[in-house]
Amino acid sequence: MDANCFYDQMANDSISSCPTASEMSVDDHSENGTEVESKKLPSSRYKGVVPQPNGRWGAQIYEKHQRVWLGTFTEEEEAAKVYDIAALRFRGQNAITNFQTSSESDDDYIEKMFLSSHSKAEIVDMLRKHTYQLELEQSKQNYACYGIGNSQGFSDLFGSNPFQETALEFLFDKVLTPSDVGKLNRMVIPKQQAEKHFALSSDIASKGVLLNFEDNTGKVWRLRYCYWGSSQSYVLTKGWSRFVKEKSLKAGDSVSFWRSNIGPNSRFFIDSKPQQQQNGSGFEEMQSQEEVGLLNPDDRSGGVRLFGVNILEKPNNLNCR
DNA sequence: TTTTGTGTTGAA
DNA sequence: TCAACACAAAAG
Fold first, then answer.
1. Distance from residue A258's CA to nucleotide C10's C1', rounded to whole Å
2. For A200-216, how does the pLDDT look when each residue is reduced to its tens digit (9 = 90+)?
3. How far apart are CA A152 and CA A271, in angstroms?
4. Which top-level group of life is the source organism from (predicted)?
5. Residue A145: Cβ within 10 Å count
6. How many angstroms separate the CA atoms of A58 and A49, rounded?
7. FRET label pair with A115: which of A228, A238, A253, A316, CA 20 to 30 Å apart?
8. Residue A99 CA distance to nucleotide C10 C1' (Å)
């Protein structure tokens, strides 16, 4: 493509993407395009932005001695903004960017969370496909649906989890064994899960604690949770047999544990599912959140699901009511 | 045929 | 790390 074609394309694409006079070499004005220098592409005034032969602009960022291509864009400024987004994700809040990016507004805070909750590859993929803004907006809408619902700005909540009123966190599943639904009147909680989600201090471990679990009907089940030293296992005891009976649980069925909030006001939830039926007695509130992306039923790795991704590690503290 | 984005190089 | 340049690969 010669210079004339190049600038024709520039004119078609966007007025604002045309080079300034200072960026255009004298030879660019030649009519016949025979000058060698006329093919020289205009440099971008933005970091991470490179000109393309067709007059568009490419965005790229470097990491570990390798270029990461961020896509091509009609507008030079658009490419610059894309670089900024990548820079924030790759290099953090202190990254040098083309435009002012840091503020304490709610939107900016959501975007920070959005960025940090997606892998670099995911962000790059969005940028290259030009879907970043769309996905970000969808995340904001998800937040609006399940937000705190008061007038308090996010910035007021820095230092704590601003989404704690909204997050419903999947803890773990347990496929019930015959003994879990038998006459022992107890359910063994896998040690790894127990120590992770229901950690007890040693002094109260043997004594046990009463935990409240809400089921899908809103009914609260008060279950005794303790550690049995004899079998070195964590168990739900008092109240469990009644739960089994009322839910008609059998071996092979499963129970799921969830929690909402992080901190002193944590609430636990319990849900049961028949062995063969995966979509039967779903937790209505949880399902509705899954539908909007707050929770991902396919990804039960344990993190809080926000903006369609997991963003928080599970806390290790136990909160009894 | 047009556009994207990679290979490569040299500067900072 | 970064941008410039050339050009092969991919897309239309």
1. 47
2. 666 666 677 778 888 87
3. 32
4. Eukaryota
5. 14
6. 6
7. A316
8. 32
